[in-house]
Specification:
This protein is mainly alpha-helical. The protein has one domain (33-378). Helix content is 68%, strand content 0%. The protein is built from 15 helices and no strands. The protein has helices at residues 33-52, 66-69, 73-77, 82-99, 104-132, 144-150, 155-158, 168-186, 190-207, 213-219, 224-239, 243-271, 277-295, 306-332, 338-374. Helix 5 (104-132) packs antiparallel against helix 8 and helix 9 runs parallel beside helix 12 (243-271).
Amino acid sequence: MGTAMPAAAPTGRPLPFTGAAPKASPVRRPRLHVLDGLRLIAALYVVAYHYTAFAEHDPRPWGKPVHEVFPAFGRFSAYGYLGVQLFFLISGFVICMTAWGRTPKEFLISRVTRLFPAYWFAIAATSIAVLLLGGHWLRFGRSIDQALTNLTMLQDPLGVSDVDGVYWTLWCELVFYLLFLAVVAKGLTYKRVVSFCGLWLIAGVVTANSGDGVLNTITMPTQAPYFAGGVAIYLIYRYGPDLTLVGLTGLSWLLALHQTAGQMSAVSGHVGHRLHWEYAAGFVTACYAVLIAAALGRLDWVRWGGLTTLGALTYPLYLLHEDIGWAVILHLHGAVPPWPLIGGLTALFLCAAWLVHRFVERPMSRYLKRELGRARVLA
C-alpha cells in the first residue's frame, strides 16, 4: 500500500505503473461518457425488474402473476435487481473522482445538492400520485409522519418505512459518503484511499455474521464490495494499474460474488421462481469488466454527448418509477396490452425525469450550493 504512484501521461491517460511519483496536478481528462451510459442501463434494468419480474404484490398490479404476463422476458429481467449493484460500483468510481482535490465542505455540499432536490420532489410526487390513483395498498401505509421522516433520508435507522421501496439504496449511499468524508477530511492520497477500501472490506467480512446492527450499518458487508471496487477502479484510472490495485479490485469482486450467492434465495422469493447464481455472477463480472475497460481507456471511443443528458435522468427516473408505475399498471392493465403499457410508462418516466432534472434539480441545486457555501457552520 505504500508503493509510489505512477505519473499521468501527457495525453491525459495514466501510464502503466512504473514506481515514479505522480504529478501534483494530473492532467484534466475527458469526460467518461461510458459511465453515463452504464447508469442508464442500470436504471432501465431496475425498471424492467420492477415492472416485469417483481412478484411480491397484493393485489397484483397485472391482475395475475407477473410471470404469466412476461413468461420469457421475466426470466431475464428477474436479474434486474443487480442494476442497483451496478449503481453502487459506478458510485464508488465517481465519488472518488469528484472528491479528489475538494475540501470536506465542498464534498459535503456536492453530495447534498446531488441527493436531496430530486429526492424531496419524488417523495411529494409519489405520495400524492399513489394516493390519487388509489394505490395506497402498495406495501406500506403512508402517513404525514412517514413522509416527513423520509425527507431526512434517515428513515432506515429510525425504523420508518420508505415512501417508495427504492429509497433503501439512498441510505447505503449516504453511509458511504459519510465514511468517505472522513478520508476527504484527512486529504485524499493513494495510500489513504487504498487503506480505507482495504480496511472497510475486511471490516465487512469480520462483522458480516456478528448480528450487530450498528456495525453492519457502518461496514455494509453486502454493498461495500461494490463501492470499494468502484473506488479501486478509479485509482487504476487515475494512476494506472499496479499489483495493489489489481488485488484490491479482485478482492472486492470476489466478495461481491459471495454476497450475490447469499442473495439468491431471497431474490428468488421476490420474483417467484428460482434464480441461478451463475447468471447473476456473470452480470456482476461484466459490470466490473466494463468499468475496468473504461478505466484503462479501452472505451474512450464512446463520446456521444447525448449520454451526458441521459445519465442525468437516471436518478429522478429511479426515484419516480416504482410505486407510481405500479399504481398506473393496476388501473390500466385491463385496457392496454402489457408491452405498450410498459413502453409508454418507461417513456413517460424518462420525460418526467428530464422535467425534474431541468426544473427541480438544477435550480434547487444552485440555490442550495449558494446558501450552503455561505453557512458558517460549514466554514
